[in-house]
Amino acid sequence: MTRFTVNNQPVHYRMDPATPLLWALRDASNLTGTKYGCGNGHCGACTVDIDGQAVRSCQTTIGSIEGSFVTTIEGLSRERDHPAQLAFIAENVPQCGFCIPGMIMAAAVLLKKNGNPTEDDIREGITNLCRCGIYPRLVETVLRAARAQRGDETIPAGVPSGIDPADAARLVPALLPTK
Fold first, then answer.
1. Which residues of the chain are in CATH 1.10.150.120 domains?
2. Model confidence, pTM
3. Which residues contact 115 (CB under 8 A, 6 or more apart)?
4. Ordered DSSP codes for 98-113
5. Nearest to 20 by CA among 10, 76, 35
6. CATH superfamily of 83-150
7. Torsion of CA 41, 43, 48, 52, to 10 degrees
């Protein structure tokens, strides 16, 4: 029996205790924000918060975290207004978006431990990989999130600029090829 808490909800997975947490979250709990990237713990796409630590869920068995508290990107902020989430949006960091949930979780854990990180702290604390190369914007994004978390800056929620989401919904069908 494997019991722990996921996003403030007690869970009991009736799976082999050797099952990687990543697959329990994705397949049994339908929490698909945690991504499968490399499967060997190097890329960080599967990063979640376990008891205040940024952990690669592909390398963590559910049997090894009995009684723990797990937070996924879905549980980080119900309103999607965590300072790290807002800063990533405001700084236009996401490109393909695949690595972003893991990056945000690593940033959130770092900010929980250190509300005033240095550039070196960020580079050491967030070792996730990004194929799109967001690294030049990552440090400033996490610094901005830290300022917002401390109350030194307000980051507006929502799409920072560009096309209105309602307009995008109307335009997309017009951009699709016709038969």
1. 83-150
2. 0.86
3. 146, 149, 150
4. SSHHHHHHHHHHHHHH
5. 35
6. [2Fe-2S]-binding domain (1.10.150.120)
7. 80
Length of the chain counted residue by residue: 179
Q: What is the pLDDT of residues 51-104, one digit of tens each?
A: 999 999 999 999 999 999 999 999 999 888 999 999 999 999 988 889 999 999
Please list the alpha-helical segments (H only) found in the chain: 21-23, 73-76, 83-90, 100-113, 119-125, 135-150, 165-175
Second-level CATH architecture of 2-75? Roll (3.10)
In angstroms, the Cα distances linking 57 to 60, 67, 117 are: 5, 16, 24
The CA-based angle 21-24-27, given to 5 degrees, is 140
